[in-house]
Amino acid sequence: MTRRTLLAGLPAMAAPTRLPQKIRCALIGVDGHAGEVTGPLAELPDVQLVAIADPSAKRVAQMTKSPRLSGAKYYPDWRKMLDSEKVDVIGIHNANSMHADPIVACLDRKIHVIAEKPIATDLNDLERVRKAVEKGSARFTSILPMRLTPSYLALKEIVASGELGEIVQMDAQKSYQVSADRPEWFYKRQTYGGTMAWIGIHMIDLMIHISGRDMTEAFGFQNHIGFPDTGDTENVTGTVFRLDNGGVALLRMDYLRPRTSGSHGDDRLRLAGLKGIAEYMEATGVTVMSDKRQKREVITKLPEKKSVFVEFLNHIYNNGPDPIPWKEIYRGHQIALGARDAMEKKRITKL
User: Fold this and answer.
1) Domains of the chain listed by start with CATH number
2) Per-residue pLDDT tens for 178-216?
3) Which residues contact 345 (CB under 8 A, 6 or more apart)?
């Protein structure tokens, strides 16, 4: 079980969100960010988790020890689950390379889908998903929860206000602790899909969403050094992107964060515009310096955290805004897969 999956057993603190009808929910796989779906169930009295499909009965049994998950029926095969259960919304959290098939199957059955990222690990599967999303009536979103957290919501507000001017440079970081206790698929390139596809997609999504800029070219380097028990997982990467206005974005990632660091990850994002700079890192919080301010300031009043799953359900059933528009999900994946391919082929790649 992953750290995020185990978080599904923690009580939710938000007030209940009511929906106009009872909703039957299911899971395909219990890896990755499955807790983004199961965690908010306590604040969703109209949603019932009715089934879970995963090859490992042991892992599902561990997950369903939580009282609010205990009523879910277990299936070893997701296809049999879809044939047997009436489901309104489904969360997909199996191995990265296996996301596309159940996404397409569920959308074809008019089941709303919230899927783990990457939604595909190659461009052919990404196009299959695109066609299924755009031709059908079922709604789709991907689990990119960082854009709905307070610090990044604050950065989005700052940029949208115009205080920084046109964004011409960005610098992002993801630094994680190494771990050898993840599912086996995580350590094989064929099923993992690459570190850029797995965690780089988060920062690419944030950069294009917050800045409003597109990325047109990418080049970089990646490698796996040391840590033989973590297989093919690239643990050091560096990528440079050309922005659509001629600016530059940088993304560095590693699985080198020591166990003694006190937290699993160290995420950072800096946006520099023609009138000012805003950045977030855990050590300093959200800070801004611009032509409008006398000195660098720490932003202490932040927006409230939102749940991708709750916002998705509100979008479907209460006519709320789309938390992550499909156009942005698709473009972010195009960029991430293109940047990964640029590093693997050691050449500048047009995005």
Assistant:
1) 3-143 (3.40.50.720), 146-306+325-350 (3.30.360.10)
2) 888 899 999 999 999 999 999 999 999 999 999 999 999
3) none
